[in-house]
Design goal:
globular; 3-stranded mixed beta sheet; about 300 residues
């Protein structure tokens, strides 16, 4: 394996080292979280699982992202850093599909739990919507890598943006139903999601849209199902040229860091879920309802 490209003058080398450090840190936090949960009653409360489901889902996402950080590749372009079958798009996309579905299932579980205490219908309905939405997004992603047609990436990332816009709406609704630390945590999460939606809407989705339009203008021919599947499994182009990776480095750096941190926070929710009733915002009763309750309290009980 040639390592002469690992130089501080090569942006790709700096970017890859950053991904490795972040991934190692994320795995360390995952192990810490696992050890901490073992010491609490959380594991005993996990119905049919020996480990809290949120933690299992988090582990799949953290380890999947770590794998993709060690062997990064750009699907449609078929480019990668290392000449190994593990760098094939088929392997990488399969790992990504499992990890990303686990991530959105985490969100669905947490939103449902948050909605249960104050009986919030909006958040509960959104928790049921986001998983099917991301399953469709994953199908669009596979269409993009098999064909290879950037239209699939446009649709995929548009659906991710829509899913997190719905999650932000759910969080804003829940903010009005909780107080104290829970409310501030929901506000911080909503703010982070707003940044994500802004990035996807102004950078990521437009980037893929421009690539799709460029391919159409150049008359690029797309692959069929069988030829595309053979291509994703057998062809990969090793390159450490920064110009080839220019469009991929920003979103991968954010994805394999901030998104994984969010997954770890979602897994930590299992440690505090039982405290939610304390922070439920109890709204004052209407004046007439309060008066009726006061009268009922003063009235002697009827003897039958």
């Amino acid at each position: 394996m040639q390592l002469d490209w690992l130089s501080w003058t090569n942006p790709v080398a700096i970017w890859w080292c950053f991904l490795l450090v972040v991934s190692a840190t994320n795995i360390t936090f995952l192990l810490f979280l696992f050890a901490h949960m073992r010491k609490t009653s959380v594991a005993r409360r996990a119905a049919a699982f020996a480990v809290e489901p949120l933690l299992l889902l988090c582990a799949a996402y953290v380890l999947g992202c770590a794998f993709r950080s060690m062997l990064p590749r750009a699907d449609v372009q078929r480019i990668c850093l290392f000449d190994t079958w593990l760098s094939s798009v088929f392997v990488g996309r399969s790992v990504a599909t499992v990890a990303e579905i686990c991530f959105v299932v985490q969100w669905a579980i947490v939103l449902r739990a948050l909605a249960q205490t104050p009986n919030a219908d909006t958040a509960r309905n959104i928790s049921k919507t986001i998983v099917p939405l991301i399953v469709v997004a994953e199908g669009c992603s596979w269409y993009a890598v098999i064909t290879p047609n950037y239209l699939g990436n446009v649709l995929e990332n548009s659906l991710w943006t829509a899913a997190f816009l719905l999650i932000a709406i759910a969080l804003l609704d829940l903010m009005n139903r909780y107080r104290g630390a829970v409310r501030w945590t929901l506000a911080a999460a909503a703010a982070g999601i707003a940044g994500y939606v802004a990035f996807m809407s102004t950078v990521d989705v437009p980037m893929y849209f421009v690539r799709w339009q460029t391919d159409l203008a150049n008359g690029r021919e797309f692959l069929g199902l069988l030829s595309g599947l053979h291509d994703v499994a057998t062809r990969w182009i090793v390159t450490r040229d920064a110009t080839r990776w220019h469009g991929e480095m920003p979103w991968m750096a954010l994805y394999f860091s901030a998104a994984v941190w969010m997954s770890l926070l979602l897994a930590s929710f299992a440690l505090v879920e039982q405290l939610l009733p304390r922070y439920r915002l109890r709204r004052p009763l209407p004046r007439n309802a309060a008066a009726r309750l006061a009268v009922a309290a003063r009235s002697p009980p009827r003897i039958r």
